Backbone:
C-alpha cells in the first residue's frame, strides 16, 4: 500500500544509494556506504571493482548492489555470467544487469530472455534487476521488454543506467506499472531530481529508486542547520535536527506532536515551499491566513 503522505524515511528506504561514475575512488565509495547505513537506504550500488572492499567494510550492515554489462549491455552472455558470479563471490547481494539493446531493436526477445535467465541462474536467491535503457526504446519495445522480464526469473525491471541519453521518466514508470505482471517490481533510475520527484515516481509504481541526489540533498540540508542539535551538530539524529529548526522559527517542515521524522511528509515540504498564494517567481513562500493562526 503506497501512502501519499510519504516521509523522508519512507523514500530513503527505497533508494539504492548509487555511485557509478568512472573516476570514483574508495574514499567516495566509503562515504556513500556510511551515508547509506546512516539513513537506512535499501542498498549501495557501486562499481564491481569495489564490491569486495565495500562488503568487508559494511560487514552486513547494508546490502551491496553492483552492475553487470554496464553501461552498454553488449558484453556476451558468458562474460555477464562470469561478472555476476565474481560479484556475488566478492559479497554483492543484488545485481543490476544491462540487456543487449541491439537484440531488442532486432526483435530477438528470445535471446534477451535466455540471457536474463542465465544471469538469474547465476544469482540464485539474490535479487536481479534488468536495465532496459528506456530512452533508447520505443513504447512498443518497452512493453515487449515488460513482458519479457515478467516471463523471466528476474525480480525487477529497471528504467535506465543513467549513462545514456536520458534517465527515468514518469510516463515510462507508468507504462511499466501498467504492463508488468507476475509480481515483478520496478526500479526508476537516473535523473531523479529531489524528494518530491521521488515521491511522484513511487506513487506511479516505482519500488526502488536509483540515485545519489536524495542523500546528498539531505546531507546539504543538515549542514546548513546551525544549532539544530545539542552542541550545534548538524549530523545528529534527524528528529532533533527538525526540532531545532522549529525552535529557530524554520517553517519549511511539518512535524507531528512528537516532532519525529516519521510525521514529516515530503508532500508537506513541497506545500510549505509553495503554499497557496505564494510568489513562486520571486522565490517567496508567504504563509496563508490559515497558517498564521
Residues:
Amino acid at each position: 500500500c503506497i501512502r501519499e503522505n510519504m516521509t523522508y524515511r519512507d523514500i530513503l528506504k527505497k533508494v539504492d544509494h548509487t555511485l557509478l561514475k568512472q573516476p570514483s575512488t574508495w574514499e567516495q565509495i566509503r562515504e556513500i556506504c556510511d551515508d547509506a547505513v546512516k539513513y537506512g537506504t535499501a542498498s549501495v550500488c557501486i562499481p564491481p571493482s569495489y564490491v569486495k572492499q565495500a562488503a568487508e567494510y559494511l560487514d552486513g550492515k547494508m546490502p551491496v548492489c553492483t552492475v553487470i554489462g554496464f553501461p552498454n549491455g553488449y558484453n556476451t552472455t558468458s562474460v555477464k555470467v562470469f561478472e555476476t558470479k565474481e560479484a556475488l563471490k566478492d559479497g554483492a547481494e543484488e545485481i543490476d544487469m544491462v540487456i543487449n539493446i541491439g537484440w531488442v531493436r532486432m526483435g530477438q526477445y528470445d535471446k534477451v530472455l535466455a540471457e536474463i535467465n542465465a544471469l538469474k541462474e547465476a544469482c540464485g536467491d539474490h535479487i536481479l534487476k534488468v536495465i532496459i535503457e528506456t530512452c533508447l526504446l520505443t513504447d512498443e519495445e518497452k512493453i515487449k521488454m515488460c513482458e519479457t522480464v515478467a516471463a523471466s526469473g528476474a525480480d525487477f525491471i529497471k528504467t535506465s543506467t543513467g549513462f545514456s541519453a536520458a534517465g527515468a521518466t514518469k510516463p515510462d514508470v507508468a507504462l511499466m506499472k501498467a504492463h508488468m505482471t507476475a509480481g515483478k517490481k520496478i526500479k526508476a533510475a537516473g535523473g531523479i531530481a529531489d524528494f518530491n520527484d521521488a515521491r511522484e515516481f513511487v506513487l506511479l509504481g516505482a519500488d526502488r529508486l536509483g540515485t545519489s541526489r536524495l542523500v546528498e540533498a539531505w546531507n546539504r540540508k543538515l549542514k546548513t542547520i546551525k544549532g539544530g542539535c545539542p552542541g550545534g551538530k548538524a549530523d545528529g539524529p534527524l528528529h532533533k535536527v527538525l526540532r531545532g529548526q522549529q525552535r529557530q522559527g524554520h517553517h519549511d517542515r511539518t512535524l507531528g506532536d512528537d516532532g519525529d521524522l516519521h510525521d514529516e511528509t515530503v508532500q508537506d515540504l513541497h506545500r510549505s515551499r509553495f503554499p497557496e498564494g505564494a510568489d513562486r517567481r520571486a522565490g517567496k513562500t508567504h504563509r496563508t491566513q490559515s497558517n498564521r493562526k
User: Anything to note?
Assistant: The two ends are 34 Å apart (CA to CA). The first helix runs from residue 8 to 12.
